Amino acid sequence: MPLLTFASPKGGVGKTTLAANVANELSRAGCRVIALDLDPQNALRLHFGLPLRERAGFTHRLAQSPDWRGCLQETAAGIPLLAYGGAGLHETVALHAAVTARPSLLLDPVRDILANPDVYLVADTAPGPSSLLETLLSCTDLLITVLLTDAASVSLIPSLEHGGLLASEWAARANVPSRFVLNQFDPRTRLGGVIFDAARQHLGDRLLGVVYRDEHVAEAIAAQKLLADYAPSSKATHDVAAISQRVLAVLRSGNGADSDSPAVQP
Ligand SMILES: Nc1ncnc2c1ncn2[C@@H]1O[C@H](COP(=O)(O)OP(=O)(O)OP(=O)(O)O)[C@@H](O)[C@H]1O
Ligand SMILES: [Mg+2]
User: Are 61 and 149 in contact (CB under 8 A)?
Assistant: First the structure.
């Protein structure tokens, strides 16, 4: 039943990596997970080992007949995937316009999936604001904003909280619990610790976790494997597992609170 949405005002920050690998950790923890890709880059499938030439997708016929069951693709991890599908400029613009005009095109199938109380739906989205993200927020149970551990990313936090980016003002009005992940933390840099401390001080328990910069992450996607399969004892795998535990704590608390969790440490 819960919908977990990964988003960010910035591109290349690790949304897709986190969505795929948190989905996998939730699945390993015994949850029934479905992964949903709402980014026309269609990259989530790569983490699940689908062939590069695979172009089938959930969005292809969304405007005509939103048959999500027929679009599920089985993956080696046992997590059914609704890939965005291969799409060009025209199809992408047309789909976004159609969903803006009729949000139910996306919301009906998503609500149908969420009607199953056992299912955790994990959605990856395109960088920045989009009509698909705004639409999805209306049934999102936990919005996770991924940022890099750098000054440019962390400087966005106040504007994220006060609206303007990512439709977060709308999310706040709709009372969608919202959390942050800092990615690519590097303790060897002079700025890494300073930025982490500033973000933790500002966000408090809204900081869900931090993921170290770790070469295994890039290698895992190059091998088209999930992190826990490619490098089970890597630092990044450990970090993603810790974030996934916090995700479960937030979702299970029902009101977005996870006050029993200890403070995030780098
Ligand atoms: N913790 C990490 N350590 C090292 N490399 C990482 C880490 N997280 C992500 N990366 C690498 O950063 C790149 C971008 O990651 P990813 O595609 O997940 O970002 P994204 O936010 O989904 O990008 P986009 O905005 O284009 O959708 C990838 O090459 C990925 O392997
Ligand atoms: Mg992505």
Answer: no
For residue 47, the ligand closest to its alpha carbon is 1
- The pLDDT tens digits for 65-76 are 778 999 999 999
Residues 6+ apart with CB under 8 A from 49: 75, 76, 77, 224, 225
Residue 105 has pLDDT above 60, yes or no: yes
Beta-carbon contacts of 184 under 8 Å, excluding residues fewer than 6 positions away, are 13, 14, 148, 149, 150, 211, 212, 213
Q: Give yes or no for a contact between 180 and 144, defined as CB atoms under 8 angstroms apart.
A: yes
Taking only the tens place, the pLDDT of each residue in 126-135 is: 998 888 998 9
Which ligand 1 atom is nearest residue 222's CA?
31
3-253 CATH choice from 3.40.50.720, 1.10.10.10, 3.40.50.300, 1.20.120.680: 3.40.50.300
| Tens digits of residue pLDDT in 175-184 | 788 899 999 9
Ligand 1 pocket test, candidate residues 8, 13, 216, 239, most atoms within 8 A of CB? 13
Structure tokens at 254: 């029902």
Cβ(3)–Cβ(114) under 8 Å? yes
| Domain coordinates in residue numbering, the chain | 3-253
Nearest CA to ligand 1 atom 11: 218
Task: Provide CB contacts within 8 A for 257, sequence distance 6+.
Answer: 250
